[in-house]
């Protein structure tokens, strides 16, 4: 799916309606922005953390630090959005 938005003079973007509908975005929902290989990736933050707690079971290596979690999320976003890992290899 392709969609386009224009950056305003105030640095604002309007997410196209079909994209908002596809992602179930509502006014007030937060979007986390990440730059990966010069691509802007927006990830909706419209789930509560409690909705995700325990979904994967216990981590095999024990609890992860916030830095490890952030790195894993960046890697997953890059793989999903760009079809490759951060090293540039195909998944």
TrEMBL record:
PROSITE patterns: SPOVT_ABRB. Gene3D superfamilies: 2.10.260.10. InterPro entries: SpoVT-AbrB_dom, SpoVT-AbrB_sf. SUPFAM superfamilies: AbrB/MazE/MraZ-like. Keywords: DNA-binding. Residues 2-47 form the SpoVT-AbrB domain. This is AbrB family looped-hinge helix DNA binding protein.
């Amino acid at each position: 799916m392709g969609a386009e938005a224009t950056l305003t003079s105030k640095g604002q973007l309007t997410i196209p309606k079909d994209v908002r509908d596809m992602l179930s975005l509502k006014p007030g929902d937060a979007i986390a922005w990440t730059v990966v290989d010069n691509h802007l990736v927006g990830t909706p933050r419209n789930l509560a953390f409690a909705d995700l707690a325990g979904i994967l079971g216990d981590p095999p290596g024990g609890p992860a630090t916030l830095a490890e979690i952030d790195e894993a999320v960046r890697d997953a976003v890059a793989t999903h959005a760009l079809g490759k890992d951060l090293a540039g290899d195909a998944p």
